[in-house]
Design a protein that fits this description.
- By secondary structure, the protein is α+β, with helices and mostly antiparallel strands.
- 22% of the residues lie in helices and 47% in strands.
- It has one domain.
- A hairpin with a 6-residue loop joins strand 4 and strand 5.
């Protein structure tokens, strides 16, 4: 499944061991914003691999750039999940 729209906000946290990156997208056709999760790890959980961390940071960079430049974004995710599989910017 994919969601198309513009990024409303981005929130990243790495305080007290809890580590996450969330963002919100306003769909192109209107309606309410949707929340998406790039990563969410809790202190004491398994440390992500370097490869996984690089993927997350790359996705975050795309989302941040889309927000700053007000570019359209496509977020690919599973039907029943807010976790991002991939991100594409500048696509209509």
């Amino acid at each position: 499944m994919d969601t198309r729209g513009t990024v409303d906000w981005v929130k990243v946290n790495n305080r007290l061991g809890d580590d996450f990156a969330f963002f919100s997208v306003s769909p192109a056709g209107g309606g309410g914003s949707e929340l998406f999760i790039i990563w969410f790890t809790i202190s004491g959980s398994q440390t992500p691999s370097v490869t996984q961390r690089l993927l997350w940071i790359s996705q975050l960079a795309l989302v941040r750039d889309a927000r700053i430049a007000n570019l359209p974004i496509i977020v690919f995710h599973d039907d029943t999940s807010a976790f991002v599989r991939s991100v594409e910017i500048g696509a209509a």
